[in-house]
Amino acid sequence: MHEVRATVPVERSAAVAQIAIDVGIPHVSVYEIFVHGAERRKHVVSVEVSTPKAKAYIDALLSSALFDASECTLSSRALRAIAGNEPFAEITQPMIEPAPGRD
Fold first, then answer.
1. N or C: which terminal CB in the chain sees fewer CB atoms within 10 Å?
2. Helices 51-62 and 13-22, interaxial angle, to 10°?
3. Whether the model pTM is above 0.70
4. What CATH number is attached to the domain comprising 57?
5. Is residue 96 part of a domain?
6. What are the residues whose beta carbons fall under 8 Å from the beta carbon of 51, sequence distance 6 or more?
7. What is the DSSP letter of 34?
8. Rounded Cα gap, residues 21 and 16, in angstroms
9. Are the C-beta atoms of residues 59 and 101 closer than 8 Å to each other?
10. Do residues 25 and 49 lie in contact, with contact meaning Cβ atoms separated by under 8 Å?
């Protein structure tokens, strides 16, 4: 199971959340943060999902026009505690990190 966080400009968060929903992730959290240095508000779009869905989301987000590395960050963490409704076999599939496909 993975948590994927996309830190994006506030005006893009709804569209980034929709990408997660479009790849089959039913629950997406969005919360506001303040980025020091840049001195601006941003949103974090966060999902906790099985490895295959995390990979699908990362691939879809990186290939979308919404992800601009000069304004956005993307992180993925393997979660150790598992409590959810996804089948166990899907949760335990490994994923290579960082995900291939973008330089």
1. C
2. 130
3. yes
4. 3.30.70.120
5. no
6. 1, 2, 90, 91, 92, 93, 94, 95
7. E
8. 9
9. yes
10. yes
